[in-house]
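EI: anyone free to look at a 548-residue chain?
SC: sure, send it
EI:
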Amino acid sequence: MGREDSHYRPERVDGSASGGSGSGGATGRVSVPGANVPHRPAPGPIPVSPPVPPAGAAPPPPSPPPAAPRRRSRLVAALACVLVLALAVAGLAVFRPGPVAGWLGDDSSSGTAVAAPPEPTPPAVLAGPDGNAPLPTEAGIRAALDPLVRAAALGDRVHLSVADVSTGQALYGSGQDTPTVPASVTKLATGVAVLAARGPAYRIPTRAVAGPNPGEVVLVGGGDPTLAVDKDGFYPGAARLDDLAAQVRNALGGTAPTKVIVDSSLFTGPVFEPGWDSDIPTGGFGAAITALMTDGARKNPAEARRTAEQTNHAAERVPQPDLTAGRQFAKLLGLTGGAAQVTRGTAPAASGATGTAPGAELGTVESLPMIRLVDIMISDSDNVIAEAMARQVALAKGKPGSFAGGAAATGQVLGELGLPAGEISLADGSGLSRTNRISPSLLTDLITLAGNGSHPELAAIFGGLPVGGWSGTLDERYRAAATSAGAGVVRAKTGTLSGVNAIAGTVTTADGRLLTFAVLTDRTQGSLDETRAALDRITSALAGCGCR
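SC: here you go
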């Protein structure tokens, strides 16, 4: 049976609700033909929307001197400036300096910081790493972890990699280069790939164009899985069909809408990945992946929003998301009866068409920026968003918008980033497929690259990572005495399928050193709780020792 990460609890630091817009309130944008809509300023905390340590803590320490190159010549290690700032900034990030404001819609060219409204001081969550802290030794980490890796609940395929974020130095490995079933940890690779391929500021458009006959409207899906029908959508801040319908009515002028045609041809191939367990399409964690959908294909988004925490984000999904969205749009245009029955088709070629000529654009709405979609994908472990993100990678690289295209493009982008693409083989972007394979060392390389400052756009993957004992899929973990050292200092993406358990992220040691780790097991034998406890003991051992 397929199984997705459970014990979900929404991030609370930036005030966002489950799946919320969070991070400064960036919203989906509305584009009216012929009008210039200014970008919205985006006040709030830093772009990756991490939990903010208490005010008055020390600022980030000076960067340490460069260290020896990592074991992989293709990955050049640099200082972990971005990640240290993302995890340790102490009440200093009350504005969005530099390129981040632009990513979230602030087109101000003055360079002046935009002050955020005062917020209550949050509780301490993450211990700030110390850039001058001593580096653990390989022998010290091996002594701490070797007994724990042999826990019976983990089964006989336990593959583990630990590295230092600042230097990129590998500190521990056990089957670290062995491709292993990653489950939902796959989303880290998907997030890095789409941020690299599309950029943090990219927004996915949903368009309406004039159909071949007067009054006909073609709704063209661009692949935005968060598109809402109206203000009661599942994802706060998402682009909305009612806004698009208003644009269409205005553009048509005196011509009454007569029919809606749905163009979801941007995505091709099967709507369910063949490697998914048989219960995924109906189990509430997956959906038919189409280029046009509303609310992640949820049948009742308002109810799903109310029950997300109790159901671990499972929700009933509609079987044909594109046609459902089309019918919702037809209703917003005032169509009833037979006229509200939509059909699939292809938008007429524009060829410079204007007004209401066939192919002329009647309206456009745009999704949240990519930086926010990735944040939601990771914090909520949202499989539908993940599959849409993988297809965005494919489209950016000129490949088909399909499962196969997304998988191939993700591997290509990771290779272009200097990561060992030979150690990743994907069938989907969410991790629901059991045919996916990723090595632990690729994951620690990836996390190091995202945090070392060489690619600041990749740091968005850290914003959604759950915190041990506090948020997301780690909310109820790290609360036992044996694992309490990891509470507040382990920040990681988890992955769960039947017989598969994984965790990858960052941890701050007792000496204040920031490490990255990945533990993948794909032949577990104990109960789910026993397996998770065994994984937590490994990461807690890193948190609780200097390992020297």
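EI: The CA atoms of residues 69 and 76 lie 7 Å apart.
SC: 👍
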